[in-house]
Structure formats: C-alpha cells, structure tokens
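User: I'm putting together a small comparison set for a docking exercise, and I want a reference complex before I start. The sequence is below, and the ligand is dioxothiomolybdenum(VI) ion. Could you produce the 3D structure with the ligand included, as structure tokens?
Assistant: Of course. I'll restate your input first, then give the structure tokens for the complex.
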Amino acid sequence: MSPQPQAAVGAPLSRVDGRLKVTGQARYAAEHDVKGTVHAVIIDASIGRGRITAIDSRKAEAQPGVLRVIHHGNAPRLPYKENKASNNPPGTRLQVFQDDMVRFHGQPVAVVIATTLEAAQHAASLVDVEYDAEQPTTELDKGKPDKPTTYARGDVDAGLRKADVRLDLTYRLARNHHNAMEPHATVAHWTGNKLTVWDKTQWIVGTQTELSTVFDLPLTSVRVISPFVGGGFGSGLRCWPHTVVAALAARVTRRPVKLVLNRKQQYFATGFRPEYEYRLRLGSDRRGRLTAMAHDMDHETSSYETFTEGILDPGRMLYSTPNVSQAYRTVPLDVNTPIWMRGPGPATASYVIESALDELADRLGLDPIELRRRNEPDEDESSGLPWSTRRLRECYTMGAREFGWDRRSKKPRSRREGDWLIGMGMAAGVYHTARMPAEARVRLDADGTAVVETAASDMGPGTYTSQTQVAADALGLTIRTVTLKLGDSLYPQTPPHGGSMTMASVGSAVLDGCNKVRHQAVKLAVEDENSPLYGVNADDVVVRSGRLHVQGNPARGETYRQLLARNDRTHLDANGSYAGAPGTERHSLHAYNATFAEVAVDATLGLVRVRRVLGVYDAGRIISPKLAESQAFGGMVGGIGQALLEHTVTDHRDGRIVNANLADYLVPVNADVPDLKAIYLDGEDREADPLGVKGLGEVVMVGVAPAIANAVFNATGRRVRQLPINAEALL
Ligand code: MOS
C-alpha cells in the first residue's frame, strides 16, 4: 500500500469535542439521568480503626423520601469473586457492608437512599453509628514494613568505598491526592439481572470486570458508560468501593441510583500518591562518574491491599552506574489503598535522583548538565538492551539554549532582586513506554463519513481528537467526516487509560482498523471495471479528502461515495487490533525530558514563586501538537503542586485527613503558574508501536519537582529534602 498523506496527524488542531465541553453538552458521570433516579449518600467511618457495634437508622428511615439505609447488618452478601483482570493490588479488596470492621477513617459504613439528594443528605446526618474504636497506625515510621523487593547489580559497598565523593541523603515526600475537577460519581441501573453504570472511570473494561466479579454476573451483563471524564490523574484506574455501593443500592431499592462523592470523600474513597521515605546513597569519582547508587524506598499501603508502583526503573537505567542496589518496601497502615498518580513511580524516584545529582554537581563544582552528560549510558544497563530512541543529550542542549542556562549563577544565593533571591535549576525526566492490547471497530458509510468505536476513556488529554487525527489520515478523510465514539463497554476493549499508553495502544488499533477499511475500498476500486482506478496497482492508490486516486495523478480517481454507491455497498467495516508490547522487548523504550525552572524566593518569608518552566521532550512522534502542549503544561502545573504545595495531612490520633478540601489542600492556581514553554523534539520511535509514539501524559510531570527544588537551592543555598518545599522549610 502506498503511504497515506499525513494531513491531520501533526496538525495543531483544537479539540473535536471542545464545543460540546464549553457548551455543557459533554455529559459527565453524575450528569446522566435515568427516569426515576434516586440519590445515595454514603456515611463514612468516623474512627480510624475498630468495629461497628451498633447502627441505629430509625430516625433516618422515618424521614420523608427515604427509601432505605443499607449497612453491614442488613446488606445482602455479595459474591466478590476473584478478579484477575483488574488493577486491584494483591490482597483482599474492601468488601462494602460485608462485615463490622473499620479499616480506615472514612471507610463506607452505611448508605442512605432517598428520592432527593437533600433528603438523603439530611437522613445520613441522622444515622447513629457506634464504634469500638482502636488506635489506628497511620504514620509511615510506625508501621511494620513488608518484605522488600530487591535488585542488585555489581557491588554497591565496594562502589561506595572506592568513591571520591559519597552522599547519603534521605528524602520525605508527602502524600498527594489527585483532586481532579470532576468528582467521582456513579449512576447505577439494573434491568432484571443486567447492570448498567455511568461511572467516572479511566478503565471502562476494568470497571466492567470488577462489577461482574463482585456481583458474579457474566461480563456481558454489565455495561459501563463513561464518554467524558473531567480529569483523573490515575484516580480512575480501578473500580472503587463507592461504585459497588451505588450498584448495590440500586439492586436493593430496585431504582436507578445516583451516587456522587463529595470533595471530602475523594480523599479516602479513591486512592492517592503514597507518602514516601526514600534514602539514596551515591558515590562518584572526582570527575563525576557515578560509582554506586543504593536506593531504599518505603511507602504506605493499606492493611488489606499491597499497592506498588513502577518506581525502580529510573534508578536502574537513567544514568550509567556500575553498582546499583534497590530495596523497595511497602508499609501497611490503617489507611485506604493508594493508587497511581501522574508519573507514578518515576515522579518520585526522579525527584530523589535528580535532587541528589544536583548536590553531587555542587560538591564537585560541576555544571549539573555536564554531570549528567558524563553519566549518559550507551545502553540500558539494567537489561543490556539498546535504546530504541534516547535523545536526552539533545534535550539538554536545546533546553540550555532556550532557557538561557548560561545566565545561571554558579554560586548559590548570589542573585538577588530586592527581597527576592533568584535561582535556576534543571532535572532530567524519564518514563517507560508501555503498550497493551487494544481493539477498535471502524465503519465507512456510503455517504463518505466514518465512525470509529473503541472503549477508551478521554480524561482530558484529548483522546477524541488525537484518535480522530489518526483515523482521518488512515482513511483519507477530513477531520470533520470522522466521528470517534469512546467510553462504552459495548465498544471494542482497550487497556486502562493511564500509564501514557492510550495513543500507542488504542491509536495503533484505530490505525489498523482504518488501514483495513481503506485497503478494502482500494481493492474494490481496482477490481471494479467501472472504476476509473480499474487495473491500477493497489499500492499506487492513495485517498485524500474521501477521494481515491492514483498517487501523483489526482485526476484519475473517484470518491468513496461514488465507489460504494456503484457497488451497492451501504458501508465497509473492519475490526482493528493491536497486540501490545511483544513478549520480549528487543529495545529499552522510554520517553525523556529535560526540565528547567527559575524561581524567586522571598529571603525573609521563605515564599517560593516559580518564574519560568521549560520542558524539552523526547517523546517520539507528536500526533496532536496543540494538545501535547496542553499535556506538558498540565504536567508542569502538577509538578509545581508536587514541589511546593500538595500535601495531604493526616491527624494520626484518629486517622482523619484534616485538609480534605480544596481550600486547605493546596493545588497551583493561576497565580502560581508562570510562563511555561514546551518543546517536543521532532521524530518518531519506530520500535515502540506503529504510530512511533512513546507516550506523553506521565513524562511531562517527571522532572518538574526536582528542577524546581534545584532552583530553590541555587536561589537560597538551602537544601530542602522534602516535598512539598513549603515556606517553613526555608526559614
Ligand atoms: Mo495516569 S497515573 O496513568 O492516570
């Protein structure tokens, strides 16, 4: 087949669903209405650990409009079959209302269902729950760590011994919450033994399998619909207990039930980025060549599930290091289970490694970029595999030039503007390129328009738009004549909308399906005696704006419409698929960045203001430059939050989260976000996937926090080995 012209891919298009979003026509989970819908409000445990000894719901049930109060004392026993095709971590998932145990502060202990939301809320306040409370353990230092996951290459002790410079640094990273704009919500509706849910989820298929195993239903009896997701950052990567509560409430009351978590409930109902303690010991020779790195990582998990994340990669492959050891421990606490949050793993590891490298550079009197260049590995030293593409050196060069790195003052605390100390910092970022099996269905109609269906979500990166771009080029159609349909389990299956793998995985399936349909059309034409393309070699036919023609001879051809009409075809269709990553990789695949930040720190008040951030990305091919820029800006904003603001605070006396709201849990607002700039290196990664993309969503956040932390050091001469870097830490 001749290569298709690329008209849509690479064009800086606005979102195809932008109009729906700004006019309020895009419907989010809680905005779906089924006739007769009633409202559910969850009652959360007010103790951090213990047992429920009594629940008195009589006053609540006497209220007008109240249909039912469900709790462990009256809830039906649910099958909760094992779910192997899920993101549930090892352990036993929380089974709602199945026993009297309280495992964390905020655990659902009852649900009130009423005909109006107000009636349900009021009734919930009238339910009396009595507890036998125990002292919860919620402090990382006080928990008993699980057996570590370990890794070693070379001899770390020997490597540290022979080092000319040794650093032994311990970093604390606060717990962070996703805080997407849209609250988690579910509308659940049973028809007979079939369940339909409109749910906020980043994984349609995952929520479908979870509900089917909880209620022991055939997969086909559960339909999950989620056409729009108002931000996720990872919080929607598994099906959480509240979704089961909604389905259970709907089954018991035989009514469609709407359940919306309030802002406070998002803090204990849907996971978080775990708090970490991360010790890094490293050694280098006098010239800055690393001799050893020893990583010791502890983070919280719940008492009932062991959540882990891919934190080990950067420490093994980002820099050439002959001797590496890693010990990664989870610490079970009386908390709800964490989950991945943007850049999960590397956003933590890179903060530590990149901060430590900055200390090393300072100690050696080396430029931080030069130090990184001296440790640039020729291959992935953890696997011995060659890089597919790794263009960090170019990221450094371009970033340094664009940012004006040569204006950075080498001596910390030496640049001042009035009350403000000014500093510049940089860091590298990395995130592995993941791909998983995906499918898509493509139909080209006789009117020359096409519909593509796939069960992927779009939590905001612009999946509707970027997939439309891929489909339009592969079909030879304009953007306007292609309709993407997402977010329904009736559509072909896709992997989780996370881990930066949607473009590679779903995009490759869409590409495959569209190529198949185009091939069918071309074959039909060249074998049709009445077609102007009759007898032409199929490889010489291209399609542009819905018209098939001989490559290099646009005059000879016809439109899809003409072709299909003459052949009495209502449509052509095909199923596209992508197998995902091969069983054994032959290359080490990662996306990279170099991130630069400039900060101003008030010398007396300790306030940090980010003045500029620049990211230069090696992320493979960029399908949708305008949306890619938005992704990068979002990652930078997330990184500013991680660096300076975000911190979930727990009252360890009873496990209560004390800042479970957007007034006290600080996220960056416009005034915190300065001049941002994103540059993507041109190119593609041919080893990664048919589209040549390496993934964007995660890598754009990795590296931002350490660049800011390093800039704070350059401004103030103070090393703060904690996130967030708050004003107190700088006083
Ligand atoms: Mo992202 S943490 O994979 O939603």
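The first helix runs from residue 18 to 22. The mean pLDDT is 98.
User: Thanks, that's exactly what I needed.
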